[in-house]
Write a structure and sequence with these properties.
Layout: E1 9-12, H1 21-31, E2 35-40, H2 44-51, E3 60-62, H3 68-82, E4 90-93, H4 112-132, H5 134-137, E5 142-148, H6 159-179, E6 184-191, H7 197-200, H8 205-215, H9 226-236, E7 247-250
Parallel strand pairs: 1-2, 1-4, 2-3, 4-5, 5-6, 6-7
Length: 259
């Protein structure tokens, strides 16, 4: 099969509904010739049902990034699907979570336990996920791509998730530094807001999203995850062979607009 990911093996996390960026990454990856494996957390039956809407059948592996046993067994479970010469060419990190008291304008009152959860799941997991599958990634070199939301500024109600995204950005740079010698690139796609399941859990999402309605110079569609997914696919491909530690903004241009 032809396509910019022809022959590549890609692990995609974070598929929960077909409105998610991760779902569209998996769909486009298949259309571009990749073999895809998904991971799911919690409602695995839901992920398996959504996965049936992809162009081709895909296996779904349970993964809780806070579960040491899940991380330790991930590489072997992925290898089961790719055979004895199993390797990975790409990993998509689309994982984020903050307890409700870490969002919604409660920044000054959030306790460390909730902050720690937000940082572990949303930022540290980029490192733990990558290291879990490193034995497969380092065989041929590969590309790790994480989903970001611009952490250059303080957003309304985003609070400790915003701090976690800043930590994600720093984590990606350090991974890029330490894994470059193994031929592994690590980059982020900083996407504009999408009306997905994750968005519904963010208090004040509409207030935040309204920024894009007025400030995106080339426009932004809150209901269209495909532009961000295309950015991920490009970074997974061989078309960015010497790009690492980068944050690619797919946000309609909002990130660079002044007053």
């Amino acid at each position: 099969m032809s396509g910019i990911l022809a022959g590549k093996r890609i692990l995609v996390t974070g598929v929960l509904t077909d409105s998610s960026i991760a779902f569209h990454v998996a769909k486009l990856a298949q259309e571009e010739g990749a073999d895809v494996v998904l991971t799911g957390f919690g409602r695995l039956s839901l992920v398996e049902r959504i996965a049936k809407r992809l162009p081709k059948p895909v296996p779904v592996i349970e993964l809780d990034v806070q579960d040491k046993e899940h991380l330790e067994s991930l590489a072997s479970k992925v290898a089961e699907h790719f055979g004895p010469d199993a390797s990975l060419d790409g990993v998509v990190h689309s994982i984020g979570f903050a307890p409700q008291d870490a969002l919604g304008g409660n920044f000054l009152n959030t306790g460390w336990e909730s902050v720690a959860t937000a940082v572990e799941v949303s930022a540290y997991s980029l490192k733990s996920l990558t290291m879990a599958v490193l034995p497969l990634l380092e065989k041929r070199g590969g590309s790790v791509v994480g989903m970001d939301f611009d952490a250059q500024m303080a957003w309304p109600k985003y609070d400790w998730m915003g701090v976690s995204k800043a930590a994600l950005e720093a984590t990606s740079r350090y991974l890029a530094r330490d894994l470059g010698a193994k031929g592994i690139r690590c980059n982020l796609v900083s996407a504009g807001p999408i009306k997905s399941m994750a968005a519904k859990s963010i208090p004040g999402f509409d207030e935040l999203a309204d920024v894009w309605n007025t400030r995106a110079p080339i426009g932004w569609d809150l209901a269209d995850p495909e532009p961000a997914a295309r950015g991920v696919i490009a970074l997974l491909s061989d078309w960015f062979p010497k790009t690492t530690g980068e944050i690619v903004h797919v946000d309609g241009g909002v990130h660079m607009m002044g007053a």
